[in-house]
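Why run this: before we spend reagent on co-expression, it is cheaper to look at a predicted model of the complex and decide which construct boundaries make sense. The entries below are exactly what would go into the expression plan.
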Amino acid sequence: MPEGNEIHRWAARHNAAFAGRKVNVLPGPNHRFRDAHLVDGKKMVQVHAVGKHLGYEFANGLYLHIHLGRFGDFTEGLGPLVEPKGTLRAVMQRAGSGKVSRSVKGNAHALTGPYNGPPSKDDGTQPFPAEDVDWWELRGPTDCSIYDSDKWQALLNRLGPDPLAHEPGGHDEPSRAIDAILAKKTSIAELLMDQEMISGIGNIYRAELLFRHRVNPFTPGDAMDTKTLKAIWKDAAVLMKAGMVDRRIVCTKKSDRPSKQEPALRGEEHYVYRRHGKPCFVCGETILRKDVAGRTLYWCPKDQHTTKEQTASALKPGVSLRSQRVK
DNA sequence: GCCTTATGCTCAC
DNA sequence: TGAGCCTAAGGCT
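The model came back. C-alpha coordinates follow.
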Protein backbone atom coordinates (compact mmCIF):
# COMPACT_ATOMS: atom_id res chain seq x y z
CA MET A 1 0.00 0.00 0.00
CA PRO A 2 2.86 2.25 -0.80
CA GLU A 3 3.73 5.66 -2.13
CA GLY A 4 7.19 6.46 -3.48
CA ASN A 5 8.81 6.51 -0.05
CA GLU A 6 8.03 2.84 0.51
CA ILE A 7 9.21 1.84 -2.95
CA HIS A 8 12.58 3.52 -2.49
CA ARG A 9 12.90 1.92 0.90
CA TRP A 10 12.32 -1.58 -0.51
CA ALA A 11 14.81 -0.87 -3.30
CA ALA A 12 17.47 0.16 -0.78
CA ARG A 13 16.88 -2.90 1.36
CA HIS A 14 16.81 -5.32 -1.54
CA ASN A 15 19.96 -3.80 -2.99
CA ALA A 16 21.71 -4.37 0.31
CA ALA A 17 20.48 -7.94 0.44
CA PHE A 18 20.71 -9.13 -3.16
CA ALA A 19 22.61 -6.79 -5.51
CA GLY A 20 25.56 -8.52 -7.17
CA ARG A 21 24.39 -11.98 -6.09
CA LYS A 22 22.78 -14.87 -7.84
CA VAL A 23 19.20 -15.29 -6.73
CA ASN A 24 16.38 -17.73 -7.08
CA VAL A 25 13.12 -16.25 -8.29
CA LEU A 26 10.13 -18.48 -7.82
CA PRO A 27 6.49 -18.20 -8.75
CA GLY A 28 3.93 -18.36 -5.98
CA PRO A 29 2.01 -21.54 -5.17
CA ASN A 30 -0.60 -20.68 -7.83
CA HIS A 31 2.11 -20.19 -10.47
CA ARG A 32 0.57 -16.98 -11.69
CA PHE A 33 4.04 -15.54 -12.27
CA ARG A 34 4.87 -17.85 -15.14
CA ASP A 35 7.97 -15.98 -16.32
CA ALA A 36 9.91 -16.42 -13.09
CA HIS A 37 12.22 -18.92 -14.82
CA LEU A 38 13.54 -16.17 -17.12
CA VAL A 39 15.54 -14.69 -14.25
CA ASP A 40 15.70 -17.59 -11.80
CA GLY A 41 19.29 -18.45 -10.91
CA LYS A 42 20.66 -15.31 -12.57
CA LYS A 43 22.76 -12.56 -11.02
CA MET A 44 20.66 -9.63 -9.84
CA VAL A 45 22.70 -6.54 -10.71
CA GLN A 46 20.74 -3.89 -8.86
CA VAL A 47 17.28 -2.71 -7.91
CA HIS A 48 15.94 0.52 -9.40
CA ALA A 49 13.13 2.57 -7.89
CA VAL A 50 11.30 5.14 -9.97
CA GLY A 51 8.09 6.67 -8.69
CA LYS A 52 6.06 3.70 -7.52
CA HIS A 53 7.83 1.19 -9.75
CA LEU A 54 10.55 -1.30 -8.85
CA GLY A 55 12.87 -2.79 -11.44
CA TYR A 56 15.20 -5.65 -10.45
CA GLU A 57 17.87 -5.59 -13.14
CA PHE A 58 19.46 -8.92 -14.03
CA ALA A 59 22.77 -9.70 -15.68
CA ASN A 60 20.95 -11.15 -18.69
CA GLY A 61 19.46 -7.72 -19.46
CA LEU A 62 15.98 -8.46 -18.15
CA TYR A 63 14.11 -6.59 -15.45
CA LEU A 64 11.72 -7.97 -12.90
CA HIS A 65 9.13 -5.21 -12.79
CA ILE A 66 7.02 -4.91 -9.65
CA HIS A 67 4.26 -2.43 -9.00
CA LEU A 68 2.64 -2.90 -5.62
CA GLY A 69 -0.56 -1.04 -6.45
CA ARG A 70 -2.77 -0.34 -3.49
CA PHE A 71 -2.58 -3.75 -1.87
CA GLY A 72 0.81 -5.18 -2.68
CA ASP A 73 3.39 -5.79 0.03
CA PHE A 74 6.60 -7.65 0.73
CA THR A 75 7.44 -9.88 3.62
CA GLU A 76 11.15 -10.27 4.31
CA GLY A 77 12.79 -13.01 6.23
CA LEU A 78 15.91 -14.63 7.61
CA GLY A 79 16.84 -18.26 7.20
CA PRO A 80 14.83 -20.83 5.28
CA LEU A 81 11.52 -19.92 3.70
CA VAL A 82 8.45 -21.33 5.33
CA GLU A 83 5.00 -22.40 4.22
CA PRO A 84 3.96 -19.93 1.52
CA LYS A 85 0.32 -18.97 1.66
CA GLY A 86 -2.02 -19.34 -1.29
CA THR A 87 -2.08 -15.65 -2.08
CA LEU A 88 1.68 -15.46 -2.50
CA ARG A 89 2.74 -14.20 -5.94
CA ALA A 90 6.53 -14.46 -6.13
CA VAL A 91 9.62 -15.16 -4.06
CA MET A 92 13.24 -14.00 -4.31
CA GLN A 93 15.86 -15.86 -2.36
CA ARG A 94 19.64 -15.83 -2.25
CA ALA A 95 20.88 -18.66 -4.42
CA GLY A 96 22.64 -21.39 -2.49
CA SER A 97 21.08 -20.44 0.81
CA GLY A 98 19.38 -23.76 1.10
CA LYS A 99 16.28 -25.40 -0.23
CA VAL A 100 12.96 -23.74 0.12
CA SER A 101 11.41 -25.34 3.11
CA ARG A 102 7.70 -25.81 3.03
CA SER A 103 7.52 -28.02 6.04
CA VAL A 104 7.82 -25.52 8.86
CA LYS A 105 4.60 -24.12 10.20
CA GLY A 106 4.47 -20.51 11.13
CA ASN A 107 6.86 -17.83 10.08
CA ALA A 108 8.68 -16.78 13.21
CA HIS A 109 11.39 -14.79 11.49
CA ALA A 110 9.30 -12.99 8.94
CA LEU A 111 8.46 -9.39 9.42
CA THR A 112 8.35 -6.19 7.46
CA GLY A 113 10.27 -3.98 9.83
CA PRO A 114 11.83 -0.55 9.46
CA TYR A 115 15.51 0.12 8.70
CA ASN A 116 17.05 0.39 12.13
CA GLY A 117 14.28 2.16 13.96
CA PRO A 118 11.84 0.82 16.50
CA PRO A 119 9.67 -2.19 15.66
CA SER A 120 6.84 -1.16 13.35
CA LYS A 121 4.49 -3.71 14.80
CA ASP A 122 3.11 -4.05 18.27
CA ASP A 123 3.83 -7.76 18.39
CA GLY A 124 7.31 -7.35 19.79
CA THR A 125 9.12 -8.48 16.66
CA GLN A 126 12.48 -6.83 16.21
CA PRO A 127 13.77 -5.33 12.99
CA PHE A 128 16.88 -6.70 11.31
CA PRO A 129 19.40 -5.07 8.98
CA ALA A 130 18.71 -5.25 5.28
CA GLU A 131 22.06 -7.01 4.68
CA ASP A 132 20.72 -9.96 6.62
CA VAL A 133 17.61 -10.47 4.50
CA ASP A 134 17.71 -13.94 2.95
CA TRP A 135 14.42 -13.79 1.07
CA TRP A 136 11.33 -11.82 0.34
CA GLU A 137 7.90 -12.88 -0.71
CA LEU A 138 5.40 -10.76 -2.55
CA ARG A 139 1.65 -10.70 -2.44
CA GLY A 140 -1.08 -8.58 -3.97
CA PRO A 141 0.90 -6.60 -6.55
CA THR A 142 -0.75 -4.83 -9.46
CA ASP A 143 2.11 -6.06 -11.62
CA CYS A 144 4.88 -8.62 -11.33
CA SER A 145 6.31 -9.35 -14.76
CA ILE A 146 9.50 -9.47 -16.82
CA TYR A 147 10.46 -6.40 -18.85
CA ASP A 148 13.19 -6.18 -21.46
CA SER A 149 15.35 -3.07 -21.40
CA ASP A 150 13.25 -1.31 -24.06
CA LYS A 151 10.09 -1.74 -22.07
CA TRP A 152 11.82 -0.56 -18.90
CA GLN A 153 13.16 2.50 -20.72
CA ALA A 154 9.71 3.28 -22.12
CA LEU A 155 8.37 3.26 -18.57
CA LEU A 156 11.07 5.68 -17.42
CA ASN A 157 10.30 7.97 -20.35
CA ARG A 158 6.62 8.06 -19.48
CA LEU A 159 7.08 8.94 -15.81
CA GLY A 160 7.52 12.46 -14.49
CA PRO A 161 10.47 13.36 -12.27
CA ASP A 162 10.66 11.65 -8.89
CA PRO A 163 11.40 13.83 -5.84
CA LEU A 164 13.29 10.95 -4.25
CA ALA A 165 15.49 10.27 -7.26
CA HIS A 166 17.32 13.57 -7.07
CA GLU A 167 20.01 14.82 -4.78
CA PRO A 168 19.31 18.01 -2.83
CA GLY A 169 20.79 20.92 -4.71
CA GLY A 170 20.61 19.09 -8.00
CA HIS A 171 16.99 19.87 -8.51
CA ASP A 172 17.01 20.65 -12.19
CA GLU A 173 14.28 18.17 -12.96
CA PRO A 174 11.33 19.72 -11.10
CA SER A 175 11.08 22.30 -13.85
CA ARG A 176 9.80 19.55 -16.14
CA ALA A 177 7.03 18.74 -13.66
CA ILE A 178 6.24 22.37 -12.97
CA ASP A 179 5.97 23.28 -16.65
CA ALA A 180 3.72 20.31 -17.28
CA ILE A 181 1.41 21.25 -14.40
CA LEU A 182 1.23 24.89 -15.44
CA ALA A 183 0.03 23.79 -18.88
CA LYS A 184 -3.00 21.88 -17.55
CA LYS A 185 -6.49 22.98 -16.64
CA THR A 186 -7.04 19.90 -14.49
CA SER A 187 -7.18 20.47 -10.72
CA ILE A 188 -3.90 20.42 -8.84
CA ALA A 189 -5.30 17.62 -6.66
CA GLU A 190 -5.57 15.38 -9.71
CA LEU A 191 -2.29 16.54 -11.23
CA LEU A 192 -0.27 15.70 -8.11
CA MET A 193 -1.49 12.10 -8.41
CA ASP A 194 -0.68 11.95 -12.11
CA GLN A 195 2.54 9.93 -12.38
CA GLU A 196 3.34 11.55 -15.71
CA MET A 197 3.59 14.90 -13.91
CA ILE A 198 5.49 13.87 -10.77
CA SER A 199 6.13 10.25 -9.93
CA GLY A 200 5.90 8.76 -6.47
CA ILE A 201 3.23 10.93 -4.89
CA GLY A 202 0.08 9.15 -3.75
CA ASN A 203 -3.14 10.00 -1.98
CA ILE A 204 -1.65 10.73 1.44
CA TYR A 205 1.15 12.99 0.27
CA ARG A 206 -1.06 14.90 -2.16
CA ALA A 207 -3.62 15.72 0.54
CA GLU A 208 -0.96 16.62 3.09
CA LEU A 209 1.20 18.64 0.68
CA LEU A 210 -1.78 20.70 -0.45
CA PHE A 211 -2.67 21.41 3.15
CA ARG A 212 0.89 22.27 4.19
CA HIS A 213 1.04 24.84 1.41
CA ARG A 214 -2.54 26.02 2.03
CA VAL A 215 -3.49 25.32 -1.56
CA ASN A 216 -7.09 24.98 -2.67
CA PRO A 217 -7.11 21.42 -4.12
CA PHE A 218 -9.53 22.44 -6.86
CA THR A 219 -7.18 25.07 -8.30
CA PRO A 220 -6.49 24.37 -12.00
CA GLY A 221 -2.86 23.64 -12.83
CA ASP A 222 -2.56 26.71 -15.01
CA ALA A 223 -3.73 28.91 -12.13
CA MET A 224 -0.93 27.70 -9.83
CA ASP A 225 2.24 29.74 -9.45
CA THR A 226 5.79 28.52 -9.94
CA LYS A 227 6.94 29.49 -6.47
CA THR A 228 4.29 27.37 -4.74
CA LEU A 229 4.94 24.41 -7.03
CA LYS A 230 8.66 24.60 -6.32
CA ALA A 231 7.97 24.70 -2.60
CA ILE A 232 5.67 21.67 -2.87
CA TRP A 233 8.36 19.75 -4.76
CA LYS A 234 11.01 20.49 -2.16
CA ASP A 235 8.65 19.65 0.67
CA ALA A 236 7.68 16.37 -1.03
CA ALA A 237 11.34 15.35 -1.16
CA VAL A 238 11.82 16.05 2.55
CA LEU A 239 8.63 14.33 3.71
CA MET A 240 9.12 11.30 1.50
CA LYS A 241 12.70 10.87 2.58
CA ALA A 242 11.59 10.86 6.19
CA GLY A 243 8.85 8.36 5.28
CA MET A 244 11.50 6.10 3.79
CA VAL A 245 13.37 5.74 7.02
CA ASP A 246 10.68 5.08 9.58
CA ARG A 247 8.05 3.48 7.33
CA ARG A 248 5.54 5.91 8.63
CA ILE A 249 4.15 8.93 6.85
CA VAL A 250 4.24 11.89 9.20
CA CYS A 251 3.32 15.28 7.76
CA THR A 252 2.42 17.36 10.81
CA LYS A 253 4.82 19.79 12.40
CA LYS A 254 5.41 19.25 16.10
CA SER A 255 4.10 22.73 16.92
CA ASP A 256 0.77 21.97 15.17
CA ARG A 257 0.13 18.71 17.01
CA PRO A 258 -2.33 18.96 19.89
CA SER A 259 0.05 17.02 22.16
CA LYS A 260 3.19 18.80 20.88
CA GLN A 261 4.84 15.37 21.06
CA GLU A 262 7.82 14.19 19.04
CA PRO A 263 7.57 11.62 17.50
CA ALA A 264 3.97 12.18 16.50
CA LEU A 265 1.36 10.30 18.49
CA ARG A 266 -1.09 8.03 16.77
CA GLY A 267 -3.78 10.12 15.11
CA GLU A 268 -1.56 13.19 14.90
CA GLU A 269 0.52 12.16 11.86
CA HIS A 270 -1.69 13.81 9.28
CA TYR A 271 -3.36 17.19 8.96
CA VAL A 272 -6.24 16.11 6.74
CA TYR A 273 -5.76 12.57 5.40
CA ARG A 274 -8.49 10.34 6.88
CA ARG A 275 -9.40 13.07 9.36
CA HIS A 276 -12.77 13.94 7.81
CA GLY A 277 -15.32 15.04 10.38
CA LYS A 278 -12.56 15.97 12.84
CA PRO A 279 -11.37 19.49 13.66
CA CYS A 280 -8.40 20.94 11.81
CA PHE A 281 -5.30 21.05 14.05
CA VAL A 282 -4.57 24.59 12.85
CA CYS A 283 -7.93 26.39 12.59
CA GLY A 284 -10.46 24.03 14.19
CA GLU A 285 -12.69 23.85 11.10
CA THR A 286 -14.10 20.41 10.23
CA ILE A 287 -12.02 18.46 7.71
CA LEU A 288 -13.95 17.48 4.58
CA ARG A 289 -13.63 14.69 2.02
CA LYS A 290 -14.84 14.07 -1.48
CA ASP A 291 -14.52 11.39 -4.11
CA VAL A 292 -12.38 12.86 -6.89
CA ALA A 293 -11.64 10.67 -9.91
CA GLY A 294 -12.16 7.53 -7.87
CA ARG A 295 -9.90 8.55 -4.97
CA THR A 296 -10.81 10.24 -1.72
CA LEU A 297 -9.59 13.81 -1.39
CA TYR A 298 -9.35 15.32 2.10
CA TRP A 299 -9.00 19.03 2.84
CA CYS A 300 -9.64 21.84 5.29
CA PRO A 301 -12.13 24.31 3.76
CA LYS A 302 -10.86 27.24 5.80
CA ASP A 303 -7.09 26.90 5.59
CA GLN A 304 -7.28 25.82 1.97
CA HIS A 305 -9.70 28.57 0.96
CA THR A 306 -12.26 26.49 -0.90
CA THR A 307 -15.30 28.27 -2.30
CA LYS A 308 -18.81 27.77 -0.92
CA GLU A 309 -19.68 25.54 -3.86
CA GLN A 310 -16.55 23.43 -3.42
CA THR A 311 -17.19 23.13 0.29
CA ALA A 312 -20.81 22.19 -0.34
CA SER A 313 -19.69 19.48 -2.78
CA ALA A 314 -18.05 17.55 0.05
CA LEU A 315 -19.47 14.23 1.05
CA LYS A 316 -22.05 14.54 3.80
CA PRO A 317 -20.83 13.07 7.08
CA GLY A 318 -21.92 9.48 7.53
CA VAL A 319 -22.57 8.88 3.83
CA SER A 320 -20.52 6.08 2.35
CA LEU A 321 -18.13 6.73 -0.49
CA ARG A 322 -19.71 3.97 -2.47
CA SER A 323 -23.15 5.57 -2.47
CA GLN A 324 -21.53 8.86 -3.42
CA ARG A 325 -19.84 7.23 -6.41
CA VAL A 326 -23.10 5.82 -7.70
CA LYS A 327 -24.69 9.24 -8.10
C1' DG B 1 -19.89 -13.60 8.13
C1' DC B 2 -20.86 -9.23 5.48
C1' DC B 3 -19.73 -4.62 4.25
C1' DT B 4 -16.65 -0.94 3.67
C1' DT B 5 -12.42 1.03 3.05
C1' DA B 6 -7.59 1.46 1.61
C1' DT B 7 -0.76 4.85 0.27
C1' DG B 8 -2.99 2.29 -7.58
C1' DC B 9 -3.57 1.65 -12.27
C1' DT B 10 -5.32 -0.14 -16.84
C1' DC B 11 -8.53 -0.98 -20.23
C1' DA B 12 -12.95 -0.95 -22.81
C1' DC B 13 -16.69 1.88 -24.13
C1' DT C 1 -16.52 7.29 -16.95
C1' DG C 2 -16.97 2.90 -15.08
C1' DA C 3 -15.49 -1.86 -14.29
C1' DG C 4 -12.10 -4.73 -12.95
C1' DC C 5 -7.94 -6.44 -10.64
C1' DC C 6 -5.23 -7.17 -6.33
C1' DT C 7 -5.41 -8.28 -0.37
C1' DA C 8 -6.20 -7.28 4.40
C1' DA C 9 -8.18 -5.11 8.31
C1' DG C 10 -11.72 -3.13 11.00
C1' DG C 11 -16.48 -2.29 12.14
C1' DC C 12 -20.74 -4.00 12.18
C1' DT C 13 -24.49 -7.65 12.75
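DSSP finds eight helices and ten strands in chain A. Residues 99-125 of chain A have pLDDT under 50 and may be disordered. Bring this page to Monday's planning discussion.
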